[in-house]
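Here is one chain, start to finish.
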Amino acid sequence: MRKSHRWIWTSAVLACVLIGVGQTQADLDYQIIDLGSLSQIISRSLGSGINNQGQATGWTDTDYAQQRAFLYSNGVMQDIGDFGWGPAADTYGEAINEIGHVTGSIDGARGFLYRGPDDYEIIDSLGGYACWAEDVNDHDQVVGRSTDETHDMRAFIWENGVTTDLGTLGGQYAWATAINNSGQVVGYSDADPDDHSSAIQTYIWEDGEMRSLVPDGGYGAAWDINDAGQVVGASSVDGWPCAFRWSESEGMIALPGLGEFEDEAYAINNSGDIVGFGYASYPEINPHALLWKDDELIDLKELMEPTGWNLFEARDINDQGWIVGYGHNPEGKMRAFMLIPEPASIMLLAFGFLAMRRRRPQTALKSCHETVKNRATTEHL
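Its structure:
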């Protein structure tokens, strides 16, 4: 968004389950694909990014107890290599752009940009020991986080072999999580140079300037930004984080949640569809993969239960509404999944006929801060 790679075909990689649960239960149908694993022993994988061609990336276990970044394309999961770091290296795919280029990290020490077999670049740190690449746009600009010479964690943008520090909101640390095709970057940063733990705020960086999305205070993290400049993430004042959507015109708006507990929005496509996860109750061991469309919440975990899948997190969504994430497949193995909307479902979505939803009309949406303040008040009663 390597040097050594291998291809693997398994029945699990090509396994597709079509869910059609009937209009009395849900008006949304998905095909679910198990992306498989490169290990026959541990057999785990996690999906983190998808493009409009249906190519996906993430990481998978290998039979040698490593985690490896993968490219999933045309029904095949491919190990994209160790980038010259040796067979013991762990690599993690985080994002994929429309050209099919993948970015991610190597042992948490350096980032990478993979363009194809034997065609990659190593993303250097800002002078420290650690570097994680998190996202890549269609211009091969990469963002992430890195330690500098003083071992502080800083947000960076990488382009044409140069890693640049994006600065902070006034504190010591910053993380960059996503970049759109206009070069706008989002993430989170501490804003107080004297208190690094209590002033983490969401930000947007553009034209060389970083500014807070919540200048009146509050904690939060921005996880994604689309090409329209809409931002999603999680924010909190004094309580559980709530998922939010932010834009210049709306400000920060709370998205509907499963309950009174944690919800986070991970990704937003160019149609404004959002995916993430949330908890219906506390303490709940596993989260629910979630989809928000037109401010309506669809519990993907509940929706896909008839297939035997247990979907934990939805990590990314493309402009056609295809979703990647991870969960337990019917055999109880943690696997990367891909959800593909059926054509009939797309028509129903266009007209808003959704069951299994939790709707909060736009006029009733509150600011994210007001929502989490109300949650905190309820928790303290």
